[in-house]
Amino acid sequence: MDKNINQNNFQEKIKKFFTDMKRETILDIIYLLIGCFLFTFLGWRWNMPFAAWLSPVFLIRFFRNQKKFWSTLLALPFLALTTYLKLRDGWDIPILFQILLSIFVPILFVMIPLYIDRFIANKYESILGSLVYPSVVVFIEYLIGLTLLGSMFSVGGTQFHFSAFLQLSSIASIWGMSFLISWTASVMNTFWSKDFKFDFKKTPKLAKVFSVIIISTMLFGALRVAVSDPSSPSVRVGSISVEHQRDYWSAIIDRKTPADEASLYLPEIQALEDQLFSLSEQAVNGGAKIIFWSEGNCPYYEDYEQEFYNRSKTFAIDNNIYFAPGVVKFYYDSFISDNKVVMFDPNGTLVLEYIKTKSWYETYSDGIIPSVDTPFGRLAVTICFDNDFPNFIRQVGKAKVDILLIPSFDVVAIKEFHAEASLIRGVENGVNVVRQSNMGCSYAIDYLGNVIAYQDHFDTDNRIMYSDVPTERAFTLYTILGDWFAYANFTLMGLIIADFIFRQTKKRPLFSKKNNNESPLSA
After folding, report:
1. Rounded mean pLDDT, 142-170
2. Per DSSP, what are the bridge partners of residue 236?
3. Distance between CA atoms of 62 and 26, rounded to whole angstroms?
4. Is 454 helix (H, G, I), strand (E, B) or coil?
5. Which of 149, 313, 444, 521 is a good FRET partner for 186, with 20 to 30 A between their CA atoms?
6. What is the Cα–Cα distance from 43 to 236, expressed in whole angstroms?
């Protein structure tokens, strides 16, 4: 009996809670849930470009509507959950670190910009107020991009398949793309706060400025795609992957490459090498003039290197090709290895050697991306994770490289997204790209981002990808000006925050105060 009474009391309390809850509160929770749901599809496992535009619209709405700071904390568990779902198994790190990263990422990339926007944006007229959120987003993305995390969490990196918008990266890199996406969300919230009601005959300044910029960006992109289509001769590239029998990094390098165990792996390593050369022979028969292998596809121990070089040299001479095998060189009793690509020309000369620079493993790389002139244009090589660092890859653009080869090694969870995000480096620098991935998705694109060839490792048995790639590059402003947009953004954010601090200390502000009786849409 008492149990039934207690149960009825509990049900009554729940009913009263929802009855008393304000309609606005329910709507705010709906906005939060929609924003977090869409955030699940922003990059990584299930990347959908539209989610990057819509998710912040609802998250900003939720944060700006909260009158008390503590109520905004409700967003963290939802964002952490959705982040974990999309990051899970996307990086080869222990589960504990995946969980910690799932908390760290939304706090840094999502909640900090939202808090600063909530605190500062409403203190300004609509144009300046709308710029707070995007300026903070780009500031954080750029700074984190200088760390070992790179640009993997950049909003702009999700937009590879939005062709017209993608061309903005040729001017302002992904930072300009992240800014415009975030600014759109902020502007939509300014309009939303007034139920999208304003006088169309007297279009407000914010609507005018935003419309001009967004339309100009899309027109520029569409025009660039329409009139800059590659017209140069093409060269056939054959890129090759052979699946490893085991994770050699964990089995050998992480165990300090014990010399007394080398003989255990030699038979399978030799078989792997023979298979790679066999597929390379097939690629030659398929008309390839440039052949390369995926990242670290052929492992060998340090005392075998000269023998491998001799075999590669002979193969290049016999087949009159540029041959660039991706290898990993083990040093006995050392945690260090050379994850590199070596390139031999048709005369058998070693014309290029590049060691992966951006790596979680210690590396001997000097940080310089070499290039070589060929009858098929200027070639360069970078490796997988290198391409998550726009400023680093800008070396390729400054060197006026025509074709960039990217041997890679991915995981199934992010096979599409990681490839697409790295391909944006090609559009930024006006370079044609061939990216061959073991355990991932391989692409060849021209300098506009048009897909020339595609291959999914998991849907392909004979993993040779043929691509007929343009032999000439395109000019881009990003190659010349670099991260100018990020620096301009820092200046803008610094001025707004400095002015806000001056306001709080009752000093003369840099910008005019907002008239509280004035509609945000009238500015």
Report:
1. 96
2. 468
3. 11
4. strand
5. 149
6. 31
